[in-house]
Amino acid sequence: MDLKKLFLKADNELESSEKRIRSRKITCKKCQNTSPVKKIRKNYFVCPECGYYFPVRARRRILMLTDNRSFIEHDRDMASRNILDFPEYEEKLTAAKDKSRENEGVITGVAQIGGHKTCIFAMDGNFMMGSMGAVVGEKITRLFEYATTQSLPVIGVTVSGGARMQEGMISLMQMSKVSAAVKRHSDKGGLYIVLLTNPTTGGVDASFAMLGDITLAEPGARVGFAGPRVVEKTLKTALPDGFQKAERVMECGFIDAIVPRHEQKDYLERLLRLHEASREVSM
Amino acid sequence: MMTDIEIVRAARSEKRKTARDYIDGCFTDLTEFSGDRLYGDDRAIIGGIGLLQDMPVTVIGIEKGKNTEDRILHNFGSAHPEGYRKALRLMKQAEKFHRPVICFVDTAGAFPDVESEERGQGRAIAENLYEMSTLKTPVLSIIIGEGGSGGALALSHADRIWMLEDAYYSVVSPESCSNILWKTLDKADVAARALGLTADKLYSLGIIDRICKDKALQEFAADIYGQIKELMSVPTDRLLDERYKKFRSIGYI
Would you kindly state where each structural domain of chain A is located, as residue ranges? Predict the structure, then answer.
């Protein structure tokens, strides 16, 4: 319930930030300063005044991280069906498609980063809170299987409220399905780098988001399994400062590094380069 | 015929057999082990080795407890990360000695407190799915009561998944689902129906492999024995391949 609120908030922020982009100026919701869209875009959608991180769509995320025109998308047309005949699901899917201008909550494909070929997926918080249903699970599984046969690394950008309720147990099983594909990729020596963005929670946190060889996060991203309101109810008092924030999760030992947005592409390029070099040495 | 929400209530009943009852009733020479070798011993998860007729097996259960004191000891069957890590440790041990693994699953869900989050609840569940997907020994998981989301899934990445006819297995509790979607707890019955969380429905979706009647535990043990014998006769490569395909096939056609 709290997650939904959290996501609605993130969604509204994204939507209003998009509107403001069209009006050529963006007002930061944190510091209330207004900046020209050009400046914000140049600054990787981080407020130039206060450093606030605007949510980023999946397709833009891929553009920001990969070489110009290098991205080739996989399974673009794959779309969800209401397998369980769940009430109001079709309406929600239609609304999510309109809002995100995507067919589903994840984009997958192959791209280059600094000339290094890699598989990449990015989730989209605009599509039903980035929730994982059968299509999200299937697309990511296919990407890992492709990466395994092609001996390619996988880079994953996560943003998700978890498993998608409207697909019942089929969505929960995607956690198992993707995790098994990640394992097969890993057993063949494949490199998997995760970039956790705000928020990465629930069933995605409890599966492929936490299975990277290297785990990176954006500053301030919420990362955790249970919703904060649920945890608060268990605790019966207010949550400690920084709870489930990437910085705290890193202190707890679950994140390798917090990487600011403007450094992410170079950071990934360096990791890919180092892994290619080590492969050459071992051969 | 029980309605779906009645099945959920039956699955939560304190009068039901818990994992301990199944384990005591189905196995002999039980020897219980403790701890995850990393942090502590989570009593929500019990486990060890024993004999299933003539066959040494590893047994793991999520235990809710019998009376108030016992329930507190077992944290009402809601595990912290060390519980899932204890289960994984016992499974790895089973793999080493090529013992089959039998899991009894009965949990409302993984425990949602600050400590669990900070010790990596998400990572612990993820690691179980990841490691169980290639565990080189047969695994049978049985949902005996509540199959509460990720907390149940963490012990259910198995070659065969069985379910008691009046158990449930769900991505979210019907109450939470009703609250999230319709801002009320009153539509839990609608949510229960919509989520498709009964054994019948999950069998028809191909998510579980067998619906079990509540029968004498000796007979139940005989069923388990038959299933494990069959799985033990499958070469490991094929077993793992079939396990991969089992989960691979769920969701998109």
Answer: 1-55, 56-282
- Which pLDDT score, from 0 to 100, does residue B1 have? 87
* DSSP bridge partners of A120: A109, A155
H helical segments located in A55-150: 58-65, 89-100, 134-150
Distance CA B179, CA A233 (A): 15
Half-sphere exposure of A73 (CA within 13 A, CB side): 13
pLDDT digits (tens, 9 = 90+) for A138-163: 999 999 999 999 999 999 999 999 99
Best mutation target among A77, A145, A172 (most B Cβ atoms within 10 Å) is A172
d(CA A265, CA A261): 8
Measured between CA atoms, how close is B77 to chain A, in angstroms?
15
If DSSP states are collapsed to H, E and C, what string results for A161-196? Answer: CCECHHHHHHHHHHHHHHHHHHHHHHHCCCCEEEEE
For A56-282, CATH gives 3.90.226.10
The radius of gyration of chain A from alpha carbons, rounded to an integer in Å, stands at: 18
pLDDT of residue B24: 97
Q: Complex ipTM, two decimals? A: 0.97
Structural domains of chain B, with CATH: 4-241 (3.90.226.10)
